[in-house]
Amino acid sequence: MALFHRKRTADTGDTTAPAASAAVLDADPALAALTGDYTIDPAHSSIGFTVRHAMVTNVRGAFGEYEGALHLDGADPSRSTASLDVKIASIDTGIADRDGHLRSADFFDAETFPLMAFRSTAAERVSDDRYRITGDLTLRDVTKPLTIDLEFHGSATDVYGAERVGFEGSAEILRSDWGLTWNAALETGGVMVSDKVKLTFDISAVKAAPQA
To answer: What is the SS3 string spanning 52-91?
Structure first.
């Protein structure tokens, strides 16, 4: 079995495949075989963020604990779904004091709001291997729409016989939309932490075994 399964249309050269939005573009048997339920594998995935600090540099971090599920529909990509629950207390920027501040009521208030959740509402192909998933992001008990742009990286059967799909994606949000408004003014002008945050997703998901 080939490592990656894709179908290229003869007329346009477009590559058709499923994505994090769990979409497959047509009912080709090789792609339709990917239809099913998948679980995100945290050991081979990452969910991170980047935010501007002091107007001059970027701070990067990630969440170490999360659970997610996909349903891929090989015949109708619009019926594909995705869900994700992230444990806020698992935030890690590499600096313990900073992580503690981010968990505090100044930012995420992890004790009161322990989870960040995403539930998809729509999926679409944009071009070639690029897709877009739209859904609701809930953070600090505030729910707002979120759109994630994705690139599908293919499917593979690993050495243990598990079928995987892989993709990466990103989205930009304004943290103030979810009530994360803490900041500090700089003497030189500007603020300590930017309002804009880039979210990043690098996902490997494992297909559930068929039920007997």
So the answer is: EECCCEEEEEEECCEEEEEEEECCCHHHCEEEEEEEHHHE
The whole-angstrom separation of Cα 203 and Cα 166 is 6
Closest by CA position to 141, among listed 175, 191, 179 = 179
Mean pLDDT calculated for residue range 6-22: 38
Percent of the chain scored above 70 by pLDDT? 83
pLDDT band at 30 (very low <50, low <70, confident <90, very high): low
Average pLDDT over residues 40-68: 94
Q: Provide CB contacts within 8 A for 186, sequence distance 6+.
A: 54, 55, 192
Tell me which DSSP letter residue 137 carries.
E
pTM above 0.70, yes or no: yes
The neighbour count for residue 164, using CB atoms within 10 Å, is: 18
Q: Going by DSSP bridges, is the β-strand pair 142-157/7-8 parallel, antiparallel, or unpaired?
A: unpaired
Beta carbons of 23 and 151 less than 8 angstroms apart:
no
CA 208 to centroid of chain Cα atoms: 20
3-state secondary structure of 42: helix
**Mean pLDDT in residue range 181-209:** 91
